[in-house]
Target: Golgi phosphoprotein 3 GPP34
Amino acid sequence: MRSDRWSSRTADLTLPERVAWVLGDDHGRPVSTLTEPAGLLVAAAMVELLLDASLLDAGTAYRRGPVEVHDPLLAWVVDGLLAHGGAKADLQHAVTGARGAQMIRRTMDRLVERGLAGREPRRVFGYLAMPVFGSALRVHEVEALHHDRSAVRAVLDGEDPDEAVAMLVVLLHHGRRVRDLSPADLTRASRRARAIADGRHVTLGVAQDIRRLVSPTVASVLAALTATTVIGSDH
Model:
């Protein structure tokens, strides 16, 4: 989902990658300390797949759509959703447990593959690196991150969004992550995000997609996470 609002380095990010990316720290702190729960990343992938007609909403289930999926992360999500028949009542398997953790890891791996972030050894006592502690991610393209976070904040402050930014704001609203964009006025930003999630402040076509498809899909996926903690934040 391309957008002229994003930096040239991030123009081709998929929606789940973009969610994880904009939640990175402005100072380049490890992305892994701000990782979204898997449900929000799965919801982002499903939104993109549905909008592209690679996935179809068949009422009580999801079905494979006519448009082929080329992105490996999105293809993995489709395969996972349809592996059990695509029933909406079975969404929980896609966002909890080991599969949920894989969603997080795969999304972060894509940021590394794109050169936007890199893996660093976890350090103990500030100087000793031990493989047993695994690795963290650190943003490499900090200027691009500043640019993209500012673009989203501008929309939260009142600027009209294009489709890509609007979809991201809807996800941040439902995931209760508007605060993580550090808006100047959190109350105003939260109201703005809620209005966009209701289909306001966007073009008619985008509003119809949000009301008919996007907000219901995100709400359904996140509902599958009720009373379930997939992965905790470090802060």
About this structure: The first strand starts at residue 55 and ends at 57. The chain has one domain: 15-223. The chain is about 50% helix and 10% strand.
